[in-house]
Amino acid sequence: MLGPRVWSSVRQGLSRGLSRNVGGRASGEGRKVDITGIYPPLTTPFTATSEVDYGKLEENLQKLGAFPFKGFVIQGSNGEFPFLTSSERLEVVSRVRQAMPKDKLLVAGSGCESTQATVEMTVSMAQVGADVAMVLAPCYYRGRMSSAALIHHYTKVADLSPIPVVLYNVPANTGQWEDAQKLQLRLIEPNTAVTRRFGIPGLKKAMDWLGYYGGPCRAPLQELSPEEEEELRLDFTNNGWL
Prior knowledge:
By secondary structure, this protein is an alpha/beta fold. Helices cover 48% and strands 9% of the residues. Helix 5 links the parallel strand 5 (132-136) and strand 6 (165-168). This is Dihydrodipicolinate synthase.
C-alpha cells in the first residue's frame, strides 16, 4: 500500500511536468497549458499496402476541425501506435500539427517501454509540434511494474519533458487495479468526514495536520470541538494518512 509520502513524491514530480511553460503553437510561448475540454482520439489511417495514409489523416482532421473540440489525441490506443515505427510516430505528430487548427491543442502519446526511450520520444514529439505528452504506463514486464517503479518512471519523464505530461494507464495492461482500489478505500472515510460530517472546519484542520495552512474559519463557522477533532483524527489515522 502506498503511504502519503510516496503519493506526495509523485504529485510533486508530476506537477513539475504539468506546470511547465511551453512554446507550442496552440499554447503560445510563455503560457501554461489548460487541458480542460474534449479531445477526440484519432485513428491512424493506412493504405492498402499498410503505409500511413497522411492524406486521409489530414482529410479527417479538416472535417473534425469544424467541431468545437479543445484539441485532439493522437497515438493513443485508437491510433495503433505500437504498430508504428519511431519515425512514423514523429511524422504523424508533425503532419497533424500542420493540418489542425492553430487554436487547438495536440496531445500526443509518447509512451515507450523504457524510461529513456519515453523521454527521448517525448522530447522529439515536442520538437515537431506536440503541446502535451500522454504517457502510457510501461507494461511488458508488468510483474515488475510496482508502484515505486511507475512513480520513478513518471517523475523522471515529467522532470525531463519540455511539455506537460498526462498519465495514461490501461489497468488491463498494467494490472494496477489493486493499488488503485486500496487508495480509493483509504480515501473514503477521510473524504466523508471532511465533506459530510465536519465541513470546512474539518477540511482546515486536516490541512494543518498534513503540512498545509488551514487556520481558523470565519464566523459564524465554529472550530471543531475536542471530541470532533479526535473523531476526525481517527478517520485519518486509521487509514494511514497520519
